[in-house]
UniProtKB/TrEMBL annotation:
InterPro entries: Ig-like_dom, Ig-like_dom_sf, Ig-like_fold, Ig_sub, Ig_V-set, Myelin_P0-rel
Subcellular location: Membrane
Name of this chain's protein: SCN4B protein
Gene Ontology MF annotations: sodium channel regulator activity; transmembrane transporter binding
The encoding gene: Scn4b
Membrane-spanning segments: 138-159
Amino acid sequence: PGLHVSVAFALEVSVGKTNTVTALNGSNVLLPCVFTTCIGFQDLVFTWYFNSTEMIYHGKIKSKTSEPFLVGRNPRVEFVGSTTGKDNNISIVLNEVDFSDAGKYTCHVKNPKEKNAQHNATILLTVVHKMVETDNTVTLIIVGVVGGLIGLLILFMLVKKVVLFIIKKTQDRKKECLVSSSGNDNTENGLAGSKADQKVAPKA
């Protein structure tokens, strides 16, 4: 049997850390997408689809030294990326979105240099009438309470340490006093005893 060598290609497509985007009705929204490849690219084709079937942008890139050129697009879609810089950015902007634009947007890439390797990534777009402001009141209260409890715990530990230190010092002083007074009493009693013995000693 002949020797078979398998070559692993690494065409990757990414839409960022999160695959969800929320846009205000009537606004313009950025749909991010970048791709990476280990061996470079030539005559690369990229296409954006809406809900997997409707093509909204189609472009080609000759090589790393050239920017993409447009093949076809939806009139409301603009290309805002660049492929001659550090990142192979093929992001687009969808202008004046409305509620009918909500759905899945797929960024699809095919690289002939990698034996027509293909990869894609999807963004879920939600269109809203009004942006909801996040109410952080509850979060702030929780953080405040937890912070207060931690503060009280630290204070309690410090007070406990101080009290234990004072008690230890007091006990040490008491021990010193007891030893000292006990030693003095014995000495005095001994001296007194010897004097008394000398006084009552019978005469020869």
